[in-house]
Amino acid sequence: MWESLKEFASWFFVTGDPLIYGAMVSIALTMVAIVFVLTKYKKWGWLWREWLTTVDHKRIGIMYLIASLLMLFRGGVDALLMRVQLAFPNLEFLHSDHYNAIFTTHGTIMILFMAMPMMFGLFNMVVPLQLGARDVAYPFLNAVSFWLFMFGAMLFNLSFVIGGSPDAGWLSYPPLSQNDFSPGPGQNFWIWGIQISGIGSLATGINFIVTILKMRAPGMKLMKMPMFSWSVLSSCIMIIFAFPILTVTIALLYLDRFAGAHFFTMDGGGNPMMYLNLIWMWGHPEVYIVVVPAFGIFSEVVATFAKKKLFGYTSMVIAVMGISILSFFTWAHHFFTMGTSANVIAFFAITTMLIAIPTGVKIFNWLFTMYRGKISFKQPMMWTIAFIPCFVVGGATGVMLAVAPADYQYHNSYFLIAHFHQVLIGGVVFGYLAGIYYWWPKLFGFKLDEKLGAWGFWLWNIGFYVCFMPQYALGFMGMTRRYYTYGWDLGWEPLNLVSTVGAFLMGAGFVFQVWQITYSIKHGERDTTGDPWNGRTLEWSIPSPAPFYNFAVVPQVKELDDFWRVKEEKANGTYKEEPVHLEPIHMPKNSGLPFIMSFCWFIAGFGFVWEWTWMAAIGMVGVALVMWARSFQYDTDYYVPVDEVRRTEASLGRVY
Amino acid sequence: MQQVANNHEHGHAHDHEHGHEDHEQLKVLGFWIFLVTDCILFGSLFATYAVLMHSYAGGPTGKELFELPGVIASTFILLTSSFTSGLAILAMNKGKVKELIGWLVVTALLGLSFIGLEISEFTHLVHEGATMSTSAFWSAFFTLVGTHGVHVSVGLFWMVAIMMQLRRRGLTPVTRRKVTTLSLYWHFLDVVWIFLFTVVYLMGVM
Amino acid sequence: MANHTNHNSHAESHGSLKSYVIGFILSIVLTIIPLVLVMNPLFSKVGTIVAIMIMAVLQFVIQLFFFMHIREGEKPRWNVQTLVLGLVIVLTIVAGSIWIMAFNV
């Protein structure tokens, strides 16, 4: 009995690496600490009622944000481990298998479990407020989306201590990701972690499209809608068209592994190249899904901090919406070297270069908005200004990669690595950080400290160029991606060392930001007006932090940047006060079902990962039962009485 | 009408009722968008099938094993069920709950026989030596046709749930919306089957 | 209340028995024609494939109009716009895959 238990544990748990034992101990200690604190201060009920069952978009947004920052930490540690290993030739810090696992989890986590939730966090925190809505179109579904993401992410991260991490690259190309070359559950963790959170992403896409199309405040025509909401619409359109392709692709990969199918195998008529074709049909739109909302954030930030109307609003709308369609016609540039006809390559090279046009339009619009503006260099604006040169260089190297004949030289070299980090960090990360600094006061009621933020900003920025500029050169010198070590004879060691130093500078920047958040909780400047930046859009017209029903009275919109109009009219005395009439507010009720259903998905996913059919079946039956129960639930909403609205507003300093 | 009146519990009944209706309309739009995403899902499976449809790897071909009579029967059964789910909507618009449930029962029985035919077809194919792991062609075939079958089965469960709710609550804005979305889903599945029938079976036996 | 009911049926699906019956009959016809074409080939293989694909698309359009009432509903018709865009993407996925993979099969 004891022997068989020991045997089970030895393949169930990941063993043999001191780094992992250390991580296991720290995970266990953290969990014990959390349970202890919750029990000691009797917070279990609070956690369940206020957070785990919430359908409030702002709270869901905050949970997304916390999860994404934790994932940024894990992905960042992965990055630093890789840079340590590559700092000098022939290092034996990580052995090759461990290195493979780390670059795989780094890529997967940063895109799917860091960028995506941070983006959804910003969607949730901002979009309904910006539109003048009480919540998203489907608050219950919104909670389902979050918990599916959360349990998917947990399933993926579990592979770290149980069963073993996936190690076939962030997109898990077959045949390497097939059973023959990647036996064991690691690859299945990759499939099911992404699959479960992907369903949530798809639902979020539908949710926000309907919210934006149908729930805008009266008078807010589409062409009077703030730019960030436009960018969310563009991103969600890409989500609903791209994510089903991902669902199919990795489901087929799982069928290959689990049911012995022959979609992407080397034998039985399968075709591994079909996997590349399918996954990039999702993968290319995916990078635009995460970067377009960042463009929306920059548009809001630039207009606010230059105190000018956004230059070229219409062209910006066309560019953002155009990109969402164009993004579906460029996927083959990710595998020019795979071997296909010259016509295919020519077509996809041209469509790829076309993308540069709408992107260029946006860059000029931001520059012209700043031109002759009275710019105040607050943190959101700093990140925006840092973004422009960084993204322009990243975009230009992207056009270099689009030149198909030259791509045969660059393909999968460090040149490519430097390129996509430059657009993803320079575009996505800088953008989301700008957005977090910008909207933080609205969610939490205080600003983040400027001084510590400046440390974070400069460390990130200097670190970025120190880390990635050498990698362009390394690419030209012949260093390809995913090398776990290299010899002294290649002449790569100086640039690699510089790159590692840069990575640690960025890591230091992140530490400063964590410090900044913890410091600001106590000492940050309180936002008493609800409008700390002299903003232009509706979210700044309500108190900070926003009450749970958002708007006591639904605003009547007349113009783009309507709150700015109101402030100007008030200043020059032309503002007509309209009689305010409070009404009971219709709100959705909290529900524990999203959490329970996602937990059932987690059980099912864990069963699928280990190919324990009984467990997968139990999980799926659980999912079905919860959906059945939800279908029979009719008492799902309630009305907030006028008295309560008046009391809440009075406590926030607004009298009706 | 009794049931609609029952819903007017609160004081400001009329306003609330309108709010409800807008909300139900919102859900129909969301469901449409979901159906479009499902189109993409089937589109990806069709693309895979199209690329792998001649990769038999020395195994049996579709032409050798497909038996058209059964497939033709399923096609007409599903088409008829799509029609009867439309008749259910007509009954609903006339406010006749019993007739509505009756047509839903007919639709469900047709759907059930469709699934029965599909199961017997799959068993037959497996007996003939064509399984998921026979060749890329058969992997693509079983996945594409099977995914459609799973959709129909889920629709059947959903239909049962809605019939129970209709009996319990009668016609309310909420149950009306549920019947509307269900019938959209059912028509959608028939549309997918038209292409399955054409691309997989008709082209398969040519 | 009567007013209310009208509003309800107005907002949701219209359709008359006549339109459903027409749609049903047309669908049956459009299923039988390709069957006949495949059983007794009149055209070349490519011609038959083109013909039966056209029939399938026609039947899809008919169901869209006669069963799913795509013409009705409030404006702007976001559902129709989403559908059209979705079909463009589906076409891209299928045709693009075939085009790209043609070189490798």
From TrEMBL, chain A:
Any one GO BP annotation for this protein: electron transport coupled proton transport
Location of the protein in the cell: Cell membrane
Gene Ontology cellular-component terms listed: plasma membrane
One Pfam assignment: COX1
Gene Ontology MF annotations: cytochrome bo3 ubiquinol oxidase activity; cytochrome-c oxidase activity; heme binding; metal ion binding
Involved pathway(s): Energy metabolism; oxidative phosphorylation
Chain ranges of the Cytochrome oxidase subunit I profile domain: 40-558
Top EC class, one word: translocase
Topology of this chain in the membrane: Multi-pass membrane protein
InterPro entries, per the entry: Cyt_c_oxase-like_su1_dom (IPR023616), Cyt_c_oxase-like_su1_sf (IPR036927), Cyt_C_Oxase_1 (IPR000883)
UniProt similarity note: Belongs to the heme-copper respiratory oxidase family.
The protein, known as: Cytochrome c oxidase subunit 1
Provenance organism: Brevibacillus panacihumi W25
From TrEMBL, chain B:
GO molecular function, one term: cytochrome bo3 ubiquinol oxidase activity
Keywords, alphabetical: Cell membrane, Electron transport, Membrane, Oxidoreductase, Transmembrane, Transmembrane helix, Transport
TM segment ranges: 29-52, 72-93, 100-117, 137-163, 184-204
Its membrane topology: Multi-pass membrane protein
GO CC terms of this entry: plasma membrane
Subcellular location: Cell membrane
InterPro entries: Cyt_c/ubiquinol_Oxase_su3, Cyt_c_oxidase-like_su3, Cyt_c_oxidase_su3-like_sf, Cyt_c_oxidase_su3_a-hlx, Cyt_c_ubiqinol_oxidase_su3, Ubiquinol_oxase_su3_dom
UniProt domain Heme-copper oxidase subunit III family profile: residue ranges: 29-205
CDD domains in UniProt: Ubiquinol_oxidase_III
Role of this protein: Cytochrome bo(3) ubiquinol terminal oxidase is the component of the aerobic respiratory chain of E.coli that predominates when cells are grown at high aeration. Has proton pump activity across the membrane in addition to electron transfer, pumping 2 protons/electron.
Family: Belongs to the cytochrome c oxidase subunit 3 family.
Protein name listed in UniProt: Cytochrome bo(3) ubiquinol oxidase subunit 3
Automatic annotation (TrEMBL), chain C:
Signal sequence, start to end: none
Keywords in alphabetical order: Cell membrane, Electron transport, Membrane, Oxidoreductase, Transmembrane, Transmembrane helix, Transport
Transmembrane segments: 20-43, 49-70, 82-102
Topology term for the membrane: Multi-pass membrane protein
GO CC annotation, single: plasma membrane
Keyword Transferase assigned: no
UniProt record, GO biological process: aerobic electron transport chain; electron transport coupled proton transport
Localisation per UniProt entry: Cell membrane
One Pfam entry name: COX4_pro
Example of a GO MF term: cytochrome bo3 ubiquinol oxidase activity
Domain of life: Bacteria
UniProt entry tagged with the keyword Nuclease: no
Assigned protein family: Belongs to the cytochrome c oxidase bacterial subunit 4 family.
Protein's recorded name: Heme transporter CcmD
Taxonomic lineage of the native organism: Bacteria, Bacillati, Bacillota, Bacilli, Bacillales
